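Worked Example 4.2. Read the sequence first, then its structure tokens.
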Amino acid sequence: MRIELYALAALVPAMIGPLPVSAHTITAQLCNGGTVTILIERDNEQQPERDCRFQACHAGTCRKRDRLTQPS
């Protein structure tokens, strides 16, 4: 009887499903215990133009150009 009760309790989250979330903000926790909330106000129809000509643009610099200016 006890095992069946534990099994049923384990299935409760699956029966409830995912909880609704606010899709209009991003909340990030800071190291000192505070939080930062960023509002997201963008329509799906109005996507920003992206310049995707560069690869690995997340690096912040052009690696080839950086190697030429700073010899190793």
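Now turn to a second chain, presented in exactly the same format:
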Amino acid sequence: MTSHSVSNDEIPKWLRNFVTSAISGILDTKWHAPIGCHCHQYNTEWEVTLFLTSTEVVGGAMDGAEIPVPFQVEINRVMSCFDHVPSVHWQSDKISEDDSLKQHISFQGTVKNNKVWLRILKCAPEGTTPGRLLCAFTGKTTDVW
């Protein structure tokens, strides 16, 4: 078995294009924080994990609070990013103590003759820093990613 995470420079162009297309299936308000992406190659399959980062409140009574962003996934749009109709699964909660993905929807299929397992997480993985700051006093947001 071969497994390795890849740096941004090592992601093949076809996979970058796929990720960009898949992101278009995430529907939310204009106020969402940046979208995070982790890519990992395991044997002959690419594992891609997408998630919206949280927004951290700066100042005021809620200083330091991290606010998750509600969003929707347009399933058909994401499925159309694959060359072959993928299998689709929903995981409603974490299934073991070491399950860091928790709630997510996953798609498995092929893109440009490559196996791809795409997961869109409900929340950013634990330990992920907020992607946006919200000033409690001005209401102004700043992307930090």
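Notes for the reader: The chain is about 10% helix and 40% strand. Residues 108 and 117 are 4 Å apart (CA to CA).
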